[in-house]
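When time allows, look over one protein, given below as sequence and tokens. The question is which stretches look regular and which look disordered:
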Amino acid sequence: MRQVGSIAKLDMAERFADYLRAGGIKCTVDAGAEGFRVWVHDDDRVAAAREELPRFLTEPDHQRYLDAGQLAKARLREEIGAQRAARLRTVSLSDKWSRPTGESCPLTFGLIAISLVVAYFTGLDPQHDDPRVKWLWFSSDGTLQPILHGEVWRLISPVFLHFSQMHLVFNLISTWQFGMQIEYRLGTPRFLGMVLVIAILSNFGQFLARGPWFGGMSGVVYGLFGYIWVKGKLVPDSGFNMPQQTVTLMLVWHVICVLGVVSNIANWAHGVGLVTGIVMAFSGSLLKRFERPK
């Protein structure tokens, strides 16, 4: 950092400094024996600043200098925004390795663990009248009465029921892949809220369309997929990224299931979950636009 000169009045020194800042020259003003000194941080920009100083002293009230304050503030806001975006894109390797994955994403691993426990006790063949899992179905009698009478866990519990090894493995790998990305970036409380909303809406949609005998984490999986996919498109600096091959796989699989090529699939849960995740991504971006600048 080098001094480029002194100016008698503080407001004039700040005006000159703002002009330099608006041009991308970082500088600082402080008090000195001969007035207020202007210091340029980058040695390579000192010559340009010193060249500009005589012109400023000759006509300090020129419009280009009067406008410099607003331009400097705008440039500062851009730099702060770029720094925030860079932090979102950057994953600290030291932080990543210092904290166990289970500690940083406990809910993701909790969902996987509960699904595995339920799969063990059901043998991946849950039956309607099995007393061990009867309380996990969306309804025990085909109506909403159990939920309306207090069994509200049924709004969520079907996500833990799976019916084959492929069903279980696909859902849990996807839960790990998508859940880790969201929980790590948004935090566990917000991720929990997302999972609950997606699970409730996707389960309720499947119940209304096909009845209570369904299960699987795939409604939640499609919701998380939809959120990451759209959020990454809407806010490229958000840190969310969905590879194109994954997008293609998820969408093609959904279409195949809807067309009936694969039977016994909770297509309504998939569809409602996907739409819910997409709406969450859009709503978050819209809310950001309405936030007042700080």
Observations:
- Residues 91-100 have pLDDT under 50 and may be disordered.
- The CA atoms of residues 69 and 285 lie 30 Å apart.
